[in-house]
Write a structure and sequence with these properties.
The complex is a heterodimer.
Chain A (H helix, E strand, L loop, with lengths): L10 H4 L8 E4 L9 H10 L4 E4 L11 H5 L3 E6 L6 H8 L4 E4 L2 H13 L3 E4 L13 E4 L2 E7 L3 E12 L4 E2 L8 H6 L1 E12 L18 E4 L15
Parallel strand pairs in A: 1-2, 1-8, 2-3, 3-4, 8-10, 10-11
Antiparallel strand pairs in A: 5-7, 6-7, 8-9
Chain B lengths: L4 H9 L6 E5 L3 H4 L10 E5 L3 E4 L22 E7 L2 H9 L5 E5 L2 E3 L4 E2 L2 E2 L3 E2 L5 H7 L3 E5 L10 E2 L14 E4 L2 E6 L2 E7 L5 H6 L5 E2 L10
Parallel strand pairs in B: 1-2, 1-5, 5-10, 6-11, 10-12, 14-15
Antiparallel strand pairs in B: 2-3, 3-4, 6-7, 8-9, 12-13, 13-14
The chains are: A alpha/beta, B alpha/beta.
Amino acid sequence: MAGFDKVVTSYTEAMAGLEDNMTIVAGGFGLCGIPENLIKEIKRKGTRGLTIASNNAGVDGKGLGLLLEDKQIRKMIASYVGENALFEAQMMSGELEVELTPQGTLAEKMRAGGAGIPAFYTATGYGTPVGEGKEVREFNGRHYILEEAIQGDFSIGKAWKADRHGNLMFRKTARNFNPMAITAGKISVVEVEEIVEVGELDPDEIHLPGIYVNRLIKGTFEKAIEQRTVRNA
Amino acid sequence: MALTREQLAQRVSQEFKDGYYVNLGIGIPTLAANYIPDDMEVLLQSENGLLGMGPFPLEEEVDADLINAGKQTVTMKTGASIFSSAESFAMIRGGHVDLTVLGAFEVDCQGNIASYMIPGKLIKGMGGAMDLVAGADNIIVTMTHASKSGQSKLLKECTLPLTGKGCIKRVLTDLALMDIEDGKFILRERAPGVSVEEILSLTEGELVVPDHVPEMQV
């Protein structure tokens, strides 16, 4: 690796330094835009006691669901965890701690984590179980709760295209949580479908600048679909 | 007769206005997209990062990178835009979405809504619902008026964990359209063939019945 070249060539190298009990911030919505090969590498490594912040927890046998099989996740911070029988079983038995977080609050916690903002006020969750124990403040006659930023030891994300400096472009709704999740890790690792030479991407069309990316790897993706819905011609 | 799912969706669609940005929740709200009048432009917001959601794709158009908030494959309308989850909820929290339609387990006459958790039974999470009810001004909740065993879901006080506090002003059920004002439900419309007495008997919270309660046009 030289200069701003972020490219690594093996998944072992991509996730090097990940240790037990670390926190990971992950991009993706459902199975869309998830860093599927980085998750497989975490499974292969067998890292345990992980805290993972991600909108969802994958499904049985796919995405973060893979890490539940060997009980690698200690705590999950997510907005929606349906569609995963193993998750439910581990949550009910108390093996897996879950912090349900509203989707917009979760996105903003990640954004804040990457942007040097320790906490922010939001009306979301006021007067609900989410607001319990949190500081409340009134602005212009409305109540808001204080929500703290999320930062990870690692962040893992998936983009469509990158140049070697780690400047990223996402594709369609596979963008979702990725831009914020990637910024929120001390070491951010991104896998992409294509890596081009520096200068080949139009600077005006870069969705996330390479300054937020530490390691970049090209992968091949299964891109599983959770709910395949079609209309007839 | 209680409204069918399709009739509920049809009645929801009567709240659409030309030029509205609308977020439709999973289930009946999503069906309302099928009833957008031809002479009206409405753009659908999907909170996973899409404004201008189109219909389900043809078989050959299916794209794993293009889904809605229910994780279903969708398409984009001409003029659509894509953005991150943070941007998406900035739109929602910032009050830029004109109309939000979502489902619920319970609503009470204080405008509280419970829709995301049944302790000990169903713990899937709130997804974007808490942000939507906190951020939107114009919200319609669609739900069944009572459980299958006849227990009212329009309560004096919600019994389940809340999704939002004091944020609901309009509820559409299979029996009635109601507004919530000053701690009371106000009956605005009845489902065709449903009597005021039936609605009263299935509404636990205080229900104000104006002199004239028209039938819904569905």
